[in-house]
Amino acid sequence: MFYHYKFWHSLKNPTYFTSIVEEGEVIGYKKRVLTVFILFILLFAAREYWGMGTENLTSLFAKDLQNEYYVARILSMLGAILWAIVYFCFHYYGVTYLLHLLTDIPYTWIKRVQLYVVAFLLIEKAVLFAVFYAVGYTTMFSFFSLAPAALQVIETDFMLFTINQLTVTTVLIIIVQYLFLSKWEEEASRKMLVIKLIAVQLFMALFVGLISVLPIKEWIARGLG
Q: Are 177 and 197 in contact (CB under 8 A)?
């Protein structure tokens, strides 16, 4: 059985899509993966070109160190593209493998579902960038999360950065993953599936929160010195 993959149509028909993935061959899926991958690189490159995350390089420009500034911007652009590749691969391959270990659902089946996750993350980041571009500045925390509100009562950076990772998109991701993956689980195991999906998101949020407060740049500079 052959199934011509259509992103939004498949998203609206999880039961039919999971049965096709299990029994048939999906045509056109790899093209969608390549498209999302290229869009990730373009988005991260556009954010870098606009200057998002390059505030620390402004001092070079202010000191009239033109050559050093342009070299730093080129290296920063290469870093942004590399980070886009790492980010995509982590969520598309890494998280898929983790879910495979936790659920025993075949890796290739989960990977089909995980493309929706990567696409939703891409949309979230694109919307954030569009808003930042429109207002002319960026903020440390996403307005898709509760971090801006939590900032009024929480002062711990680790907690704020962790909360910042738990956005509206996170909830959507858990719902979509459950709707699809639960079709391959026994009914008795579906409650545990929800717990596992939530646990994965919480673990990643805690990990990012920890990384965000560690002085990694200082450690690298000290190691190179």
A: yes
pLDDT digits (tens, 9 = 90+) for 137-193: 888 889 999 898 888 888 888 899 999 999 999 999 999 999 999 999 888 788 899
Tell me if 170 sits within 8 A of 162, measured CB to CB.
no
Q: Which two tokens stand for residue 34?
A: 């390549």
| pTM metric for this prediction | 0.88
Q: What's the maximum distance between 2 C-alpha atoms anywhere in the chain?
A: 66
* Residues 141 and 148: beta-carbon distance below 8 Å: yes
Q: Which of 114, 96, 98, 123 is nearest to 33 (CA)?
A: 114
**Cα 183 off chain centre by:** 24
Partners of 25 in the β-ladder:
2
CA neighbours within 13 Å on the CB side: how many for 61?
9
Residue reference for tokens 């950065």: 161
β-sheet bridge partners, residue 130: none
Q: Which long-range contacts link 189-194 to residues 24+ away (Cβ below 8 Å)?
A: 193/103
* pLDDT over threshold 70, residue 22: yes
Helix axes 190-213, 168-181, angle to 10 degrees: 150
